[in-house]
Amino acid sequence: MPSTQKPMRYGHAEGHTDVCFDDTGSCIVTCGSDGDVRIWENLDDDDPKSISVGEKAFSCALKNGKLITAVSNNTVQIHTFPEGAPDGILTRFPMHVNHVTFSPDGTKVAAGASDFMIKVVEVADSSKQKTFRGHDAPVLSLSFDPKDVYLASASCDGSVRVWNIADQTCTTSWLLLQKCNDVINAKSICRLAWQPGTGKLLAVPVDKVVELFRRETWDSEFDLSDSLNVVVWSPCGRFLAAGSVNGNIVVWNVETQQCIERMRHEKKYSICGLAWHPKYKQIAYTDTEGNLGLLENIGDVEKPNDKVASAVAKDYNDLFDGDDDDYLNGDTIEPPSSPKTGDHEDDADDLIQPPGHGRRAVIDDDDDNSLDIGLIKASSGLLEKEDDGDDQTGGFAALPASSTQQPFYDGPMPTPRQKPFQSGSTPVHLMHRFMVWNSVGIIRCYNDEQDNAIDIEFHDTSVHHATHLPNSLSHTMADLSTEAILLACESTEELASKLHCIHFGSWDANKEWTVDMPKDEEIEAICLGQGWAACATTALLVRVFSVGGVQREIFSLPGPVVSMAGHGEQLMVVYHRGTGFDGDQCLGVQLLELGMKKRQILHGDPLSLTRKSYLVWVGFSAEGTPCYVDSEGIVRMLNRALGNTWIPVCNTREHCKGKYDHYWVVGIHENPQQLRCIPCKGARFPPTLPRPAVAILPFQLPYCQVATEKGQMEEQYWRSVVFHSHVDYLSKNGYEFDENAKNQAVKEQQELLMKLFALSCKLEREFRCVELADLMTHNVVNLAIKYASRSHRLNLAQRLSDMAVQKASELAAAQQQQEEEEEEDFPKHSNAGYSSSATEWGRLPGRNAQQDQEVEDAEETDACEEAEETPEVHRESKKNIFSEWTGSSPDNSCRLNKELSGSIFQAVPAVAAEKVHCVSSAVPQLSNVLDNMTKYSKKTSLSGSRAVNKQNPPVIKPLTPRPKTKQASAASFFQPRTPATNPVEKIVEEREEKAGNESQEAKVTEQENTENRRPKTGFQMWLEENRANILTDNPDLNEAEVIKEGMSRFRMLTSEERMVWTEKARGGRVSDLAEDKKRKRPPAEEEEVSKSQEQKPEDTNASKKSKPLDPSTNNRLSAFAFKQS
Amino acid sequence: MEPAEVEFLAEKELVTIVPNFSLDRIHLIGGDLGPFNPGLPVEVPVWLAINLKQRQKCRLIPPEWMDVGKLEEIRDQERKEDTFTPMPSPYYMELTKLLLNYASDNIPRADEIRTLVKDTWDTRMAKLRLSADSFVRQQEAHAKLDNLTLMEINTTGTFLTQALDHMYKLRTNLQPGESSHSQDFW
């Protein structure tokens, strides 16, 4: 089995590095040319502890809680470990020190310097020094004999010497290396090493081989080959690892002389530091470019190899067993006679605890491996992915433990609870940190020698100017809104934990207030809303204050708080619901509204997090939808339309280039869809300097098969639905919102549905078509029916129309019911249906009417514009029930309804009763109409259409504008109307009349037909053709003037020309009629219209407005067409 | 062309700014700009960026190439090669001047950048003079110079072409066989 090689990560600035493990192996310690010593909890540790030891660090060694470093001011320093406090200077040299190393018992330190000298100093008493002179060039490397008798050294003069420590004499010397004048010119740094435990072999990396020298005889025992720089022994002394100049790492089993691992550095940088984990089969290594890497599960090949190699091993053991026995502690080398019996256990034992190895002093409890694992886990804070690896090795290490009588819990391990945090802040221990970065501004905190201050900067300087505050209370938490700054600090010995608010929005002179928490209560999280501030404390309380400093609500939390966020009157609190296991957090969330109507929306529901992740950001979108981000970069948003569930809307890690890159979220906007965040290279959070720039990520719901057109459109559709559900929420809670944006969104959604419909049609998936049509609004269903019948899918068209009927009747029932309810208590509606049309119904009637008014205005302008004349998609989606079933002339019924609802307000019971009657009578009519429709759609003959015409009672055109204006003024009593509408309507009527005069035939047809039939006269067709000309000639004409101008021009044409147009108009009308039937324009409507004379003007009005609808629907259909052959 | 005209052209280049005000999309002849959201980077032409910067309405994010490391590389490359190397922006000199004059507080190590760009410019100008010199000296008919920016062409263009005209005239007069007619011209 090959060992696993974790990808390299950035450790230090480019240059020479060194690496070692601490005594227990719980962390990796590296030093580099940037002068820092970093303590990594594991390879994925994004926030290693840094100790600055000097300008450059050449070498480090760690033992017994003392960290020895050789730094560029030619000293060897001691620091305490893991605190990193300076603990004095051990010794000084006139030149750079190239290597420092501890003696096995940790009492002495050997240092070799560029002044050719080697010193051995006692750690406890630095005055006790021994000097070794003899090298003729800078000393490269040193190694203590595990038995503390010899010291080996390599030097640039090419020699490797073994010194007797006691009398400082050179025992032996080999000329092995290439000579050079300085360390930087040396081909290799020749990190030699004694075999741990017995010290019977000295390994020296020489050019392309590791030479192994036998103790005492100092003969070259054998070589292991590769181009090498560094060698280290595994703690058990059976394995030897070597790193080479060209980036190879090779591991040998020394007894068998077999290479068991061969690893290649990703970028082939020279390996300059290697360290074995004191217990596990791990090697940490660093290169000359400052990167840190880790190899795991080294030597797992052992077992299969053993059988093959046992014979060799036996021979080999015999070779030096003779004089080895003296040095053995007894259990180092397995008895050659029984290679299999104790093999497994020995393996483990050897790797874990090398007998006679000095580390025993530190780990007092040899066998309590389980405890150690627990310790390691606990110390590694929030467990990262590496745990998997750890668990494996851990399991390996735990094997012998089971044979000892220690009770050992083998189940899932509880996860340490994540600490409380403020969203948009960087870790507290940093000297320069962001206390908060949100959509309002940035609060930075500087906490260095000269200054302890807080800088507040607003994105929009019109909110407030930038401010600088002294941070005398050492605040650690902050939040920022457009009206206040909220700060909080932990308690000190004298002072209680304080909440400090700077309410710059206040109009009085006193803008600040502070509140002391009760004794022993610490603030853990704070947030600001609109007009209130809140803090959560260690007493599991949430305290709400008004922004002016009045204490308001107070409530208990079920668990320790993790984070809080506020927006408007919403407060979201995330807390620990319980203990998570195996790296998972167990969080709950409460969402409250603190406005006039106080209520709880999320009652401590579990918060969905990605496995083994923790929460990193909690907040609201700019529109007020709760969102959060976990450490795996998944952004989730509350989907209010689906029973307050959480939907993942973005995976920021998908956008990251490197494995260690992250995006630090600062804000979420739903319209436009923007995820604002800061890209951080190789870290989870950005530094304060250089000032990071905000980037924008798109959202994407994790739908399947987004590579295909279908998946893509589905994703777009549902994303649009999710990201516009806030509109419903806002309207329900009486906030103002952008009507246009909503219309835009509905239009976009319906367009997507129509495209999907067309795609499914093309793929012959008719059932799917029906399913899609179910999501459409009524008018788009009409389009879909049309599309289906055009593409000769009559079965589909029939089903769709059935569905349309059903839908309409359902809605009618719902509406009726709703109106009945309304009469009793109208604000009690909350319809949280999933489809947008359904939610529309949940609106309050007052608002509904108001919207209709707005829609009308929009329509009227639309009618004038004539550019793309059917904004029905968004227009009709707003229509009430009457428009739903009358279909093509929505305005008529909509106004009718408006009047009726107006009359409800007036509480005229008679009218209300009449309305109910209308509704109930309408339903059977409706079905008739649609039956007709489907019949006609099958045989699109002219005679059929004629028959319909005959059924229709002739409608007298309202020539006098008076009743209309009267009616309009009556309507304006409830809703203000735009005055521009009426003149235009009048003109349109006039036009029709005149056009009628122009051609006799047209006139006849016109009178026969109802307005709804809207036949095109020759003049209209001519006008459509020539409108552009008129407009170019007289660009500043308005609609009415254009028509007038057009009429005068039309009159100037010869009679033949006019006839041509009239003929055309007649030809066109036939097809129009056919189309009309398909669009199931109910003739019933006319009957109803004729009932009341008052309503007629509207009727005509409506029909005229939707006149240019047909050509434009064609356009639209052609846009959707997926080229049917 | 005047240097001021070249600079004017350079002002159409886009740079990124972080506005500290809120403004909807603005519609200009040259195209739409914005919308401006406080704290959100947006691309605008240099002229607008400078205008906003002077009114302290924005913070400028220097172009990617305006970085000491990258410029050092460019300068070294320029010194190493005999021909002109491609510049990071066709208006590198103008942009450096403009941005460093008006927004040096938003550009880290502004002085070093100024020096580096000036060094690069000097190197290129020296090359340009050298090539002009060898062009004239060898009496070449045509030459091709790649990767020159407008400002650089502008510095020697007019002078060189005029000088060549004059020289041509002088040379043609020296040719034997020319009639006294041209002598009159002189």
From TrEMBL, chain A:
Ranges: WD repeats: 9-41, 132-173, 225-262
Main subcellular location: nucleus
UniProt keyword Ligase present: no
Residue ranges annotated for the HMG box domain, each copy included: 1012-1080
Top-rank taxon, per record: Eukaryota
Subcellular location: Nucleus, Nucleoplasm
UniProt DNA-binding residue ranges: 1012-1080
Any one biological process term the GO annotation gives: DNA repair
Bias type Acidic residues, positions: 853-870
Region (Disordered) location: 322-366, 382-407, 808-891, 940-1020, 1053-1125
Regions of compositional bias (Basic and acidic residues) in chain numbering: 871-881, 986-1014, 1053-1066, 1089-1102
Annotated function: Core replisome component that acts as a replication initiation factor. Binds directly to the CMG complex and functions as a hub to recruit additional proteins to the replication fork.
Protein name per UniProt: WD repeat and HMG-box DNA-binding protein 1
Organism, scientific name: Catharus ustulatus (Russet-backed thrush)
Originating gene: WDHD1
From TrEMBL, chain B:
Domain GINS subunit: 65-169
CDD domains in UniProt: GINS_A_psf2 (cd11712), GINS_B_Psf2 (cd21694)
GO biological process: DNA replication; double-strand break repair via break-induced replication
Cellular location(s): Nucleus
Cited SUPFAM superfamilies: GINS helical bundle-like, PriA/YqbF domain
Residues annotated as domain DNA replication complex GINS protein PSF2 N-terminal: 2-61
Stored InterPro entries: GINS_A (IPR021151), GINS_bundle-like_dom_sf (IPR036224), GINS_Psf2 (IPR007257), PSF2_N (IPR056784)
Keywords: DNA replication, Nucleus
Gene Ontology, cellular component aspect: CMG complex; GINS complex
Record-stated family: Belongs to the GINS2/PSF2 family.
Function: Required for correct functioning of the GINS complex, a complex that plays an essential role in the initiation of DNA replication, and progression of DNA replication forks. GINS complex is a core component of CDC45-MCM-GINS (CMG) helicase, the molecular machine that unwinds template DNA during replication, and around which the replisome is built.
Subunit annotation: Component of the GINS complex.
Protein name in UniProt: DNA replication complex GINS protein PSF2
Organism expressing this protein natively: Catharus ustulatus
